[in-house]
Amino acid sequence: MIFGAFERMVAMRYLRARRQEGFISVIAGFSLLGIGLGVATLIIVMAVMNGFRSELLGRVLGLNGHMNVYALQGPLPDYGPLADRLRQVPGVRSVTPTVEAQALVTVRGVSSGAIVRGIKPEDFRVRPTVSNHVVRGSLDNFEGETVAIGIRMAQRLGLAIGDQLTLISPQGNTSAFGTVPRMRAYTIGAIFDVGMFEYDNNFIFMPLPAAQLFFRVPDAVTTLELMVDQPRLIWQYRAPVQEILGGRARLVDWQQSNASFFNALQVERNVMFLILTLIIVVAAFNIISSMIMLVKDKGRDIAILRTMGATRGMILRIFFLSGASIGVIGTLFGLVMGVAFADNIEAIRQFIQNIIGTELFSAEIYFLTQLPAEIDWGEVARVVLMALGLSFGATIYPAWRAAKLDPVEALRYE
């Protein structure tokens, strides 16, 4: 073994300071606690940011196409043959014709804007992001003049299954008296809760034929939504799809449409990692200060050990082991605490909210109804290795000073 039994015994004895050396022990304890808190904080924050990104990515991609084909101008006519050709592209799982436009929702005199998306009932029922999160009603009713709305919109407008809402199109009917707003009443057949505020509050899904009729795009759609097998490798599908389009339509993938949002998340994640790493760096400086004080305090003991035959290497290993033990124990403590906290973060949030009576994670601000956390074990390993590296590095100089101590000078005035 690198460290002998004698070296381990002396190193552990130095960590258990006597009463007159209590101040050194307090500094070492704070160093251990600082490293533990730094490691735990890094693990928790990185897990939350990973979970936040994954949740947003999964729900955005589950409700929107991985790739969207638009006409160069206006709606996309004669989309059937084009959709059939796109389905033949390797890796393309489905092609869904949709009609999407904005409309004004009116219920008992209360009005608000909404995004209306028309989709075929059979395509809508196989979207797990929505079909698995219907909380009221059923998608079996999704046909004819029946629509599906989000739970936030239902709560805001006081709507329930079987109620009616009126949609007003921004493109009115031309009459002898000018342009008259075009409006139509629809029955609510399903209410969904996907857990993303933007969709639960603003989206209305209706059958594709009804949307084509309402927005006056018969035999046409506004977009073709393509779902692929590997959305994270979306660049692989662009070339074959572009070849089929031949410049007659415009292609936009999910990375292009959400580039600024996910880039901002990545930048924030990197900055938070650097900032929180400073906690571990400060704790490492505490290890240096506590070990230097320990070396100063144990100067007489070092000299006696040297006169008894201890080599410089033994003295160096003794003090290196003393300081490294603080880093190892602190890192393990932070690892356990961070993983446990990240695994139970939603329950902890609910507990704190119940105590203070204040909402800590507002869906209106953060888009999600629950606090997500996803532990990346590769990232956890990097955090642990970084903490151990800083801790070991912090003990090298004090241990070297202890090994260089001249026993004659240390005992001259004893």
UniProtKB/TrEMBL annotation:
Give residue ranges for domain ABC3 transporter permease C-terminal: 274-407
Task: Please state where this protein is localized.
Answer: Cell membrane
Q: Which domain of life is it from?
A: Bacteria
InterPro entries named in the record: ABC3_permease_C, Lipoprotein-release_system, LolCE_TM, MacB_PCD
Any idea where the MacB-like periplasmic core domain is?
A: 31-231
Q: An example of a Gene Ontology BP annotation on this entry?
A: lipoprotein localization to outer membrane
Tell me which Pfam families the record gives: FtsX, MacB_PCD
Q: Its membrane topology, per UniProt?
A: Multi-pass membrane protein
Spans through the membrane: 21-49, 271-295, 315-341, 380-400
Q: Which GO terms describe its cellular component?
A: plasma membrane protein complex
Which keywords does UniProt give here? Cell membrane, Lipoprotein, Membrane, Transmembrane, Transmembrane helix, Transport
Q: What is its main location?
A: membrane
The Swiss-Prot or TrEMBL record describes its family as follows: Belongs to the ABC-4 integral membrane protein family. LolC/E subfamily.
NCBIfam families tied to this protein: lolCE
Which PANTHER family does the protein's record reference? LIPOPROTEIN-RELEASING SYSTEM TRANSMEMBRANE PROTEIN LOLE (PTHR30489:SF0)
Name of the protein in its database record? LolC/E family lipoprotein releasing system, transmembrane protein
